[in-house]
Write a structure and sequence with these properties.
heterodimer, A: mainly alpha, B: alpha/beta, six-stranded mixed beta sheet, three-stranded antiparallel beta sheet, 8 helices, 9 strands, globular, binds adenosine-5'-triphosphate, binds magnesium ion
Chain lengths: 280, 238
Amino acid sequence: MFDQLSLYLAQPFVQYALIAGVLIALCAALLGVTLVLRRYSFIGDSLSHVAFCAMTVASVLHLLTDFALILPVTMLASVLLLGKGRRAKIKGDAALAMLSVGSLAVGYLIINRFSSSANISADVCGTLFGTTSILTLKPYDVWICVGMSILCILVFVFLYNRIFAVTFDETFAAATGTRVSLIQIGLALIIAAVISLSTHLVGSLLTSALIIFPALSVMRVFKSFRAVVVASAVVSVLCAAGGILASILLSTPVGSTIVAADILVFFGFCLAGRLVRGNT
Amino acid sequence: MPLLQCKNLTVGYDTHAVVSDLNFEVCRGDYLCIIGENGAGKSTLLRTLLHLQPPLGGQIQYGDGLRARQIGYLPQQTAAQKDFPATVYEVVLSGCLGGIGHRFFFGKAERRRVEDMLARLDITHLCDRCFRELSGGQQQRVLLARALCTEGKLLLLDEPTAGLDPMATQNFYDIIEKLNADGRAVIMITHDMKAAVRYASHILHIGGKQLFFGRTADYLNTARGRAFTAANGGQDDV
Ligand SMILES: Nc1ncnc2c1ncn2[C@@H]1O[C@H](COP(=O)(O)OP(=O)(O)OP(=O)(O)O)[C@@H](O)[C@H]1O
Ligand SMILES: [Mg+2]
């Protein structure tokens, strides 16, 4: 088993998958904390569906880099949904559900109608679940991931205190002079970038799982914002790395394996939370 | 030049005016109590002063070098969610954010300030507790500490003593009195007429429109002032 593992680890495609997967998981977890705490878990999901829709359009148009279409479209949707915060008047469940389901349906319609590929259902499966794409990355994709995550981490570290203030109490932050809308728009743009990258590389369903699971898991046990941020980053990275290796060894689909690892960890944390509370 | 001056200010929601034609000003070192019945529009006025909602008419002028970030604020209700993971220390520290300007991180000065405020409000022992697991009164103290950590010249407090026990209430009034004596202007909404009469230098009484604005002593000489004070628990020790 270990021989097999080290054999695989020597392969460039496995290394690329590990690097990209871990970095995306890290960014998604960091941003996921603010999304979950602002009660916007569902927005991550809707945005990944928007990205899916843009991706199908891009593939039908045979764009050289489909990323050039996915990124701006997702950013626009993200700023519209997240940029205004609580002051936005339409942010209801219904509007989000419409956007989410709508873009999924339109995306499928486009693929089905206009795709020139022979195996449509494999295409759809690939774009939704990221069946193989993370194992076929090129160095170029990995570099984009690295750049993106450095940007994301820098923004998160430097704006940490402001992100906390805006997430905890938007009104107070605005009253005491934090430029709330600037921070929200900035966050919305980064979230869009991470989501479109991640949809592009690992599939749209996995994306929303990567965003919500780590934060929800660690919130069962940890009670301070800092601990939640750090722990969810660590948990997410471990799950991603473990999931990718497991999927290679067991030849299961990568995305679903990572999500399965996240779910296991979630129940682990639920149990741990029970125990911790039981003891005090 | 006053810190804050309102001219013919009308506040409300969308097209529905709650209070109209407000004319008042707050100068350095003033202690203004806003009083009125439930639903009179006190919180709405405060939120408008903070630019959290647009005025429906009239003007709010900030003077004397007062910028938005020099205002401390205690909301009547916080939007903070039920299961937010945040320790008391983190919450209070976020009050220092306005004071760090364009810096990214907090320094020693801010941390000392927080420790000092925690000690003054007698919540040092809660420092590492999770904010959402505190009692209502404890949460109120934490939010007060956060509001008092702002470095500004002006403090806006919306029913600060709601939920505090008698000792904590007295302690709070003493802290505010000291801050006020140091030159901070205070605008406080309260239903505690005894305290309003005792501590405030000015009174603003609203109800649909401006019913009174002026010095506390003058307010007590008006028929409305005497009636409202008596009806709301009094003035027995003045
Ligand atoms: N978000 C809102 N949208 C529309 N109307 C509102 C809103 N919030 C409050 N109001 C209305 O504005 C009026 C004033 O409310 P406000 O909260 O300012 O009262 P208040 O003087 O602070 O009362 P209290 O003493 O109970 O705190 C009330 O009639 C209320 O119904
Ligand atoms: Mg009120």
